[in-house]
Amino acid sequence: MDITEFQQLLTIKERKTLDFKESPFLQHPDEIAAQFVSFANRLGGHILVGVRDDGTLEGKTFNFPDDSLRLSQLARDKCSPPVDVDFEQIQHPQGQVLVVTVKKRAGIPHAVVKRSGHEISERKYYIRSHNGKRLVDDRTLQWMFEHSEDPRLDMDFTVWFQYNRKRMSQIVPIFDAPPYKLDFSLTPFLQVLSEKDAAFLQQNEAHRVASLLIELLPYALLHKFSWTFSGSWLVSIRRQMGEVRVSGTPRAGNSAKVDPATLRLPPTEAVTPSLSFDLSKIIRTHILPFSMPTGTSIVLTFNFSQGHTISSKLEFIKEDAFHFVVSFQLSQWTVGPAPGHPIGFQYSGWDNLENRTQLQDLIASVGINGSFSATFAFPDRDDQEFDNYRDWAITMKDVIENDVDWGRWVTMLPPGKLYSIERDVKEILKRLRD
């Protein structure tokens, strides 16, 4: 660690991966072992000995060889399994600092132990949180033994939207293939486009259509969630042979209904307010009141650049419990069908340039990069509802993965070669009939 990195650490407030300790800390072996264990059981981190809580140096001098040896022995003898620690001495004009780097555990949780001969007579498990170390509860200990990482869900996905450029409210139909279910959730918002709206969008088609899609996607996803969680936010989804069954038991006391009328609308600089339809009315009509944990807030945000909507975000937040985020970011606008769409295979072999040009004149596609993340206050604090909150996030991820992700949908299609063969057979039969 060079002096610049050290100076940066001094400007950071104490957190899960950083703690400041004054020199008397070295005289308390039980506290040292507890700190080592708490860091190792979470993310690892640094303990700076010789630094006050406000980030100023004590101005002390350390016996680095003796202190580091004694701390190494404590990490080995008072911790089980032994904690992996490194030591470094920083020479600063205002005094010396002993930097202890605690490595994140690679296996089972560490504990502070008391030994009776070769046997361990007592174990205490600690974990690091925003407020320092804490003894773990049963739920946290079980999680620690079953997982090496904090609870978190992450996934990236893609969205492709195809439309008829001559009739912009018409989504390109898909024949002889499983439906792309997100299309059904977008339809209520697009089928009301007027000729005037279409003319407005066509004036700057690439930017305005892409902006419109980014603005509507959070509501389309809420439309899907409203049907999934209409009765309860704790549900199970069974998918078999193209059928989807949602089952759950309503939760009394920890469940609240979302009123779609309270959802935030895109701001005035967005494309949607420039169109003739009443977005608020469509939301109230097509998004059902649905269940979510009591105290949860829904936050919608839209980001703009050079007069165009470039991203949108849908968040579910419950303070001291969880934070779920679904983000949509523009990838590209292009003429022609989206990657993997059957119509692309059916017409990929066309030798007639005029026909290919007609197809591109008729169809355009917008690609969106999406991401989903779910983080939890647990294990910073014990939460009796954590397992339920995590199940809710897993269900959301399931809906996005199976009903929204274009890449997933493409994998369910027949091989592209079959579409080409079907096209060729139809052409042969047509010529035979002629």
Query: How would you sum up the global shape?
Result: elongated
**Alpha plus pi helix count:** 13
Got a strand count?
18
Report the end-to-end length measured between terminal Cα atoms: 81 Å
Largest sheet features: 5 strands, antiparallel
Fraction of residues in H or I helices: 25-40%
The proportion of residues in beta strands is: 25-35%
> How many domains would you count in the coordinates?
2
Q: Low-confidence spans: pLDDT under 50, at least 5 residues?
A: none
Summing up helix and strand content along with how strands pair, one would put the structural category as alpha+beta
Descriptive notes:
With 434 residues, this protein is of the alpha+beta class. It has 2 domains: 144 residues, Methyltransferase, Cobalt-precorrin-4 Transmethylase, Domain 2 (2-Layer Sandwich); 282 residues, no CATH class. It has 13 helices and 18 strands. It has a 5-stranded antiparallel sheet with strand order 10-18-17-16-15. It has a 4-stranded mixed sheet with strand order 1-2-5-4, with helices on both faces. Helix 6 packs across helix 7. The chain is elongated, with a radius of gyration of 29 Å.
Outline of the structure:
The chain is α+β, with helices and mostly antiparallel strands. The protein has 13 helices and 18 strands.
Task: Sum up the structure in keywords.
434 residues, alpha+beta, Methyltransferase, Cobalt-precorrin-4 Transmethylase, Domain 2, 2 domains, five-stranded antiparallel β-sheet, four-stranded mixed β-sheet, 29% strand, elongated
